[in-house]
Amino acid sequence: MPAVTVDTARIPYRIVGDGPETLLLVHGTGPGSGMWDHLLDGFTDRYTVLLPELSGSETAEDDGAELTVDTLAAQVNAVIEDAGRGPVHLVGFSLGAVVATAAAARRPEQVRRLVAAAGWINADDEYLRNMMTVWLAMAGDPAAFGRYATLTAFSRGFLNRIGREAVEANAAFMQPTPGTLRHIALDLSLDITDLLPRVQAPTLVIGCGQDATIPVENTRRLHAAIAGSEYAEFDTGHVVVFEQAEAFTSTVRDFLAAA
């Protein structure tokens, strides 16, 4: 697996497929790029897909310092440069949407089109701030931490559709690793307000109507702040990439194909 060194961090990244265009997928809070694996077949016929493991993920290596959006955006920009396949289409989910937006603002020449799903600008929303604060406070109880993550990540309808065994598996999956806790602390502290006017790439913002992690009003606000951006909204909980995987992939592909 190739890797690039950015300051004190060693950032590995996977390359999947060999399509004529390049798509880089930015993971959200938690273990890392594996969150995209179930979608890859929907992209690799057309795209070579880059999947970086940013600081805080399970396989990235760094000094454990407090994370910033600039730190993670610089890692995304460095992977694009190291892979030598830019400009790329850039798609991010949740924290990854914020990081992808920041990366597009920092290095506009590297990004053809941007998709920001379930993202936000800052933690001015008191619900969002309290949600993340409570989640951090559960770090000492891994079972409660994972169950709370499952409860806020998915809509009630989806949880009932997948059934108890799958719900229990999801609750066991998200654990309070040091990296995940660093991500949540960043979720609370980030603010990309000043970067948004610098986004030049055509942008699609995707909101989730039943989002109990990042209430959809925050994502609509992100859309309003990116000049000329398009907007799509799904009737799902936060993790739209699982709740409506096929529709999400189709929406992203249609937007990227308009380039």
TrEMBL record:
<dbReference type="InterPro" id="IPR029058">
    <property type="entry name" value="AB_hydrolase_fold"/>
</dbReference>
<dbReference type="InterPro" id="IPR050266">
    <property type="entry name" value="AB_hydrolase_sf"/>
</dbReference>
<keyword id="KW-0378">Hydrolase</keyword>
<dbReference type="Pfam" id="PF00561">
    <property type="entry name" value="Abhydrolase_1"/>
</dbReference>
<feature type="domain" description="AB hydrolase-1">
    <location>
        <begin position="22"/>
        <end position="243"/>
    </location>
</feature>
<dbReference type="GO" id="GO:0016787">
    <property type="term" value="F:hydrolase activity"/>
</dbReference>
<protein>
    <submittedName>
        <fullName>Alpha/beta fold hydrolase</fullName>
    </submittedName>
</protein>
<dbReference type="InterPro" id="IPR000073">
    <property type="entry name" value="AB_hydrolase_1"/>
</dbReference>
